[in-house]
# Entry
Amino acid sequence: MDQTVIAPAPVVEHERAHFPEGLTLDCGMTLAPVEIAYRTYGTLSEARDNAILICHALTGDQYVAETHPVTGRRGWWERMVGPGRPIDTDRFFVICSNVLGGCMGSTGPRSPRGASDAEPWGTEFPPITIRDMVRAQHALVRSLGIEHLFAVVGGSMGGMQVLEWATTYPEMVKAAMPIATSAFHSAQNIAFNEVSRQAIFADPDWHGGRYWEAGVIPARGLAVARMMAHITYLSEDALTRKFGRRVRKSDGTPNQPCSGGSLSMFGEIFEVESYLRHQGSSFVRRFDANSYLTITRAMDWMDIAAESDGDLADAFAGTRTRFCVVSFSSDWLFPTSQSRTLVRALMRAGANVSSVEIETDKGHDAFLLDEPDFDRTVRGFLSGVAEHADLPARVRGGAG
Amino acid sequence: MRLDQRLIAGMITPGTRVLDVGSGDGSLIDHLYRTRGCDAQGIEIDMGEVTRAVAHGLPVVHGDADHDLAHYPDNSFDYVVLQRTLQAVERPREVLRQMLRIGEHAIVSFPNFGHWELRLKLLLNGRMPNTAVWNTPWYATPNIHPCTIRDFLALCREDGYRVHEWMAVDEEGERAPWRRSIRLANLFGEQALFLLGKGRSASRGARLKRS
# Structure
C-alpha cells in the first residue's frame, strides 16, 4: 500500500467511568487507575432489572446505536438496537463499553501510565484477557447501580465476553446470547492473529511499538492486518457475490492483463482489492496498533475450559442463566461446529439452552448485517426470557 | 395443537421439568409452559422449526434424538417426550434408554404397525401397505423401525421399564376405545401412547390394566 497521509481522527471527549483503585488482572498485576468509556441507551427501570450489556467485537466500540463521533458512520449495531428494534430500548436499558485495552476512551496501550507519567503504555501495557475486559465491565455495571443484568449479548469477541460473564458472574446474568463465537480460540484463529501482528511488526513505522515518538503510526502494517482479517470475516460466496472477478473500469481500460493503460501490474485491478484497501486505510484512522496487538492476544488466551481444568461443562455447572447460542452457516472463523461444542457443554451442565444456526452466505460478519431470521431470534429469545421474568413490554418508571 | 398432544400434556404433572424430543414448532412446550407452569425445553432436528420456536421465545436446541440425548445429565428432567418419532430414529432402543436415563418418566407415541388395515393390505396385495398413517413408499420412508404395540411392550419388558399408562389413539389424536385389551388395541389403534417409568415392572397384567 502506498504511504498515504493519514488524516488525524477528530479529538472526541468520550463518556467515561473512573476507577482510581484500578483492577487486578489475570496476569497478577494491578492496573490503576482504570477508565472505561461507555454509552447507554433507553431507561433503567425502577427495579433496575432491564439492563442489557452489549459486548463489542475486536474492532468495535461503545457507539452501538448512534452516529460515531470519530468516523461519522452509523452505530455498528444500529439495526439491532433502538426503539422497536430486536434489542428494544423502549423496554431495555442498553449499556455498551469500550473494552479494556481498547482505543476509544477506555484504558489501553495509548493511555498514559499514570497521573504523574504522561508517557503512554505502548507495548508495555499489561497482557489482558477477555475475563479482564469482563471484570472492567462488571465494575462499570456496578457503578451504574445495577446488580443484575437482564442479558449479556455479543458477537465474535463480544460473544467470548458473554461466556466469561456467564462463568465469572453467573448469578448476575439472567440471559446470555453468545453469537458467532467460541469458548476457546482455535489454532487457526490464533494463526490469523499472528499474521496480523507480524504485519504490524514488519512496518518500518512500527519503531518497536514506540511509534508516537516518531510522530507516525504503523499504518501500512495495521492496514494489512485489517485486510487479512477482513477476508476471514467474509465467505467465498459473499466475496464472489459482491465482487466476483470484476475489474475496476473507472478509466475505461479493458479487462486484460497486457492492455497497458494506466493500471500498473500491482495497482488496484480487481474490485475486491480496492475494497480491501479501503477497509485497511479507513481502519488505521480510528484504531491504535498497540490496542490491536493487545486485544488480539487477549482473544488468543481465551479458553474457558482451561479455567475449569479442561472440562467446558464444569465451567457452567449449576448455571441458572438461559443461553441462546447463535452461529452462521458460512462463518468459517467461528464455525457452527464450535458453537455445537459449546451447546453440548451447556447441555451437560444442565443449562437451559437454545441454539440456532442462521443460513446465510455472509460469513462471520453476518451478525452485523441484515439477517431477518437472526433479528427474529434475538427478539424472540429476549422476549421469551422477559416473559419468564415478568418484565413489562415498556419501561415503567425510571431509576433516576 | 394436535389432540394427542393434549393427551400427552394431561399425563404431565404441572410445574415439572420437561424435555420434548422432536419439539417441532414448539406447540407442546409452549402449551406446557403457559397452562401447566412447566419448565419445558425442546430439541429439534429441523433448523427451520428451531428458528421459528426460538423466535417465539421458546427454549429449543438444535439436535436429534440419536446423537444429542447423551449430553444431558442423569435425571435432569421429570418427563422426556418423544412424539411420533420412535419409528424414525436410528437406534430406538438406545433412544428409549437415554430418555429414561435423563428423565424420571418417558412419554412415547408411535404409529402402530399392527393396525388391521396394514395387516390386511400386506396379506391381500403382497405389497408394502400404504395407508393414511403409513403413506410413503418403502424406498423413501423415514420410518425405518416400525413396530406394533405388542412389539413395544415386549421391548419395555425386556429392558425393564414400567408402563404407568398406555392408550391407543387414532390418527387425529382422539383417544381410541381399546382400553382393556392390548390385542384389540394392537389391531385397531392407529397410534399408541405410553407413559413409562424406570424400574422393572412387577406383573405385566397388573401393570397394563388401566385404572
